[in-house]
């Protein structure tokens, strides 16, 4: 009787089958015990158990400008009574080493206070986030906030605060601004404005805001690619209006002397046309209404 011997390919197949069976059994055991799978991080700690660290700091001194920068995480800016700047930071990361690799640096640079996230050049430093809640006194005249992935909110501040806000992925909400520049790639923008220069732009998101006043010589430029634009303006608006949408209607609730009107565009003067107001979108509706 002839005996069949196992060839090399057969042996490899059986071995892989045994390994696969073992992995299935191990996975089922983990699911039954309701514990995270045992995967060691390269520099310590385990994936699946998030690390978190919160810290409150009071920065003394008088600053006319405050700048906040982070990579991933929200930024909140609010007003406060008294002097000094309050900084509440929250760091999160998947491992203790990744958490330690994220640092919060607070550094005075002349009249500007800079609050920013710093990361060590390690593999673990590529993960995690830091969020900031910053309270500023009345003496601050300008806030600058930059995030890569996170929302930015300004509320409860002294009216007339100049603001420069930008994020790549996240929404922006600004209130009580003087001059305002707000930009995001993916996210909506909301504002209340009473200054000279207003600029807001987003690629994917709507723009909604209130214009309470515009200083002489000022301008308004609002632009989005995919989203609507809705503006509530004060009754004394004196502007040269240009509204343009590729796919969407346009309307102006103010008495306007029309110089050019097409299906999805409108140009004309409200009053004497003192301030240029340019609003455009590719896909969405545009409207200017009275407050």
Q: In words, what does this structure look like?
A:
It is a single chain. This protein is mainly β and 291 residues long. The chain folds into 2 domains: 49-145, no CATH class; 151-291, no CATH class. It is 11% helix and 58% strand. It contains 2 helices and 20 strands. It has helices at residues 8-33, 96-100; strands at 51-59, 65-72, 75-79, 85-93, 102-109, 112-119, 129-136, 142-149, 152-155, 161-169, 172-186, 189-204, 207-226, 229-233, 239-247, 250-252, 257-262, 265-270, 275-283, 286-290. The protein has a 20-stranded mixed β-sheet that branches. The longest helix has 26 residues, at 8-33. The radius of gyration is 27 Å and the shape is globular. The relative contact order is 0.10. Residues 24-47 have low confidence and may be disordered.
Helix/strand-derived category reads mainly beta
Q: What number is the mean pLDDT?
A: 87
Number of helices: 2
Order of helices and strands: HEEEEHEEEEEEEEEEEEEEEE
What's the short story on this structure?
The protein has 291 residues and is mostly beta strands. The chain contains two helices and 20 strands. The longest helix has 26 residues, at 8-33.
What's the SSE blueprint?
Layout: H1 8-33, E1 51-59, E2 65-72, E3 75-79, E4 85-93, H2 96-100, E5 102-109, E6 112-119, E7 129-136, E8 142-149, E9 152-155, E10 161-169, E11 172-186, E12 189-204, E13 207-226, E14 229-233, E15 239-247, E16 250-252, E17 257-262, E18 265-270, E19 275-283, E20 286-290
Parallel strand pairs: 2-6, 2-8, 3-7, 3-9, 8-10, 9-11, 10-11, 11-12, 12-13, 13-14, 13-19, 14-20, 15-19, 16-20
Antiparallel strand pairs: 1-4, 4-7, 5-6, 15-18, 17-18
């Amino acid at each position: 009787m002839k005996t069949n011997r196992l060839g090399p390919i057969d042996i490899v197949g059986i071995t892989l089958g045994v390994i696969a069976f073992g992995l299935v059994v191990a996975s089922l055991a983990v699911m039954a015990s309701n514990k995270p799978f045992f995967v060691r991080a390269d520099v310590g700690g385990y994936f699946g158990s998030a690390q978190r660290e919160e810290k409150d700091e009071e920065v003394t001194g008088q600053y006319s400008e405050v700048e906040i920068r982070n990579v991933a995480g929200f930024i909140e800016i609010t007003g406060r009574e008294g002097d000094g700047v309050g900084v509440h930071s929250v760091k999160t990361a998947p491992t203790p080493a990744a958490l330690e690799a994220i640092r919060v640096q607070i550094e005075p640079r002349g009249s500007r206070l800079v609050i920013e996230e710093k990361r060590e050049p390690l593999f673990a430093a590529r993960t995690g986030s830091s969020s900031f809640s910053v309270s500023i006194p009345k003496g601050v005249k300008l806030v600058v906030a930059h995030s890569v992935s996170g929302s930015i909110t300004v509320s409860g501040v002294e009216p007339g605060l100049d603001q420069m806000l930008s994020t790549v992925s996240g929404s922006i909400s600004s209130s009580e601004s003087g001059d305002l520049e707000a930009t995001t790639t993916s996210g909506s923008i909301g504002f209340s404005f009473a200054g000279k220069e207003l600029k807001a732009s987003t690629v994917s998101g709507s723009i909604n805001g209130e214009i309470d006043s515009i200083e002489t010589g000022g301008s308004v430029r609002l632009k989005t690619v995919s989203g609507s634009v809705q503006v509530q303006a004060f009754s004394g608006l004196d502007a040269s209006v240009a509204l343009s949408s590729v796919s969407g209607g346009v309307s102006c609730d103010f008495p306007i002397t029309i110089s050019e009107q097409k299906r999805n565009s409108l140009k004309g003067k409200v009053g004497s046309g003192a301030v240029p107001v340019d609003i455009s979108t590719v896909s969405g509706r545009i409207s200017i209404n009275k407050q």
